[in-house]
């Protein structure tokens, strides 16, 4: 094909921005240590069918932000770049602020049903998996995601298009996503505890020191 006949193909994707990366081991260890010390029951505010869910203290929140501020900024900047052409201007004086942070100590059979979160963005960090979970997942023959898998869904299921991303998180995996993105976790049977940490973020105007609401 000659230069004049070359076709410029462009592909357009739309929907929520989901980001995944690895969290340093020192942060995972700190979250587990601080979470085990917490006495603040978080279950009334959460969707999970999990017996042991605890909120972190204000000091824990400050410590966590000091460790993860760069990652939150990276996500926020990518979200502005890819969501609307004017968002870099609208939110030029803004950043992400941590609203809430809790830890889930999950046992076999416990799970998170399909749900969404409040505020603007949310995240989940997988701190520890049961030793035999990977083996259990490899034995799965069902069409649905394997035990312990996390599923993110956007919109309705339609032929010829993608509305679901499924993952089998390992220790250190972190996902950040818009708070209203529907997600859920499949229960597992393997003996052992799975520990995850979740939280919510909101857009914060650094000049006015107030929450900045997203315009339509």
Descriptors:
globular; 216 residues; eight-stranded antiparallel beta sheet; Jelly Rolls; alpha+beta
- Assign the structural class, choosing from mainly alpha, mainly beta, alpha/beta, alpha+beta, or little secondary structure: alpha+beta
End-to-end Cα distance = 44 Å
Question: What is the H/E string?
Answer: EHEEHHEEEHEEEEEE
Mean pLDDT: 94
**CATH homology superfamily name:** q2cbj1_9rhob like domain
Which fold name is given in CATH as the topology?
Jelly Rolls
Helix fraction, binned, reads 10-25%
User: How many structural domains are formed by the residues?
Assistant: 1
**So, CATH architecture?**
Sandwich
| Number of strand segments | 12
Unreliable sequence segments? none
Q: How would you describe the shape?
A: globular
CATH class: Mainly Beta
Cα gyration radius (Å): 19 Å
**Approximately how much beta-strand content do the residues carry?**
25-35%
Major sheet characteristics: 8 strands, antiparallel
Number of helices: 4
Explain what the structure shows.
The chain is an alpha+beta fold. Strands 1, 2, 3, 4, 6, 9, 11 and 12 form an 8-stranded antiparallel beta sheet that branches. Strand 11 (194-205) and strand 12 (210-211) form a beta hairpin. The longest helix has 26 residues, at 58-83. The relative contact order is 0.22. It has helices spanning 25-37, 58-83, 87-90, 133-138; strands at residues 19-22, 40-41, 52-55, 94-106, 112-115, 121-128, 150-153, 164-167, 173-178, 182-185, 194-205, 210-211. The protein has one domain: Jelly Rolls.
């Amino acid at each position: 094909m000659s230069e004049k006949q070359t076709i410029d193909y462009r592909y357009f994707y739309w929907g929520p921005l989901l980001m995944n990366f690895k969290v340093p081991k020192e942060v995972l260890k700190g979250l587990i240590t601080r979470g085990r010390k917490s006495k603040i029951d978080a279950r009334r505010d959460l969707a999970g069918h999990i017996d042991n869910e605890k909120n972190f203290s204000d000091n824990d929140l400050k410590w966590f932000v000091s460790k993860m501020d760069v990652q939150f900024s990276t996500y926020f900047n990518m979200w502005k770049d890819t969501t609307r052409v004017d968002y870099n201007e609208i939110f030029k004086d803004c950043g992400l602020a941590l609203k809430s942070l809790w830890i889930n100590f999950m046992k076999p059979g416990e799970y998170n049903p399909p749900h969404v979160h409040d505020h603007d963005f949310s995240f989940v960090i997988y701190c520890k998996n049961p030793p035999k979970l990977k083996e259990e997942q490899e034995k799965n023959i069902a069409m649905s995601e394997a035990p312990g898998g996390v599923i993110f869904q956007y919109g309705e299921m339609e032929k010829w298009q993608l509305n679901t991303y499924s993952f089998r998180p390992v220790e250190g995996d972190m996902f950040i996503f818009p708070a209203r993105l529907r997600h859920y976790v499949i229960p597992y049977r393997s003996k052992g505890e799975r520990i995850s940490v979740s939280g919510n973020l909101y857009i914060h105007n650094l000049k006015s020191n107030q929450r900045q609401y997203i315009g339509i």
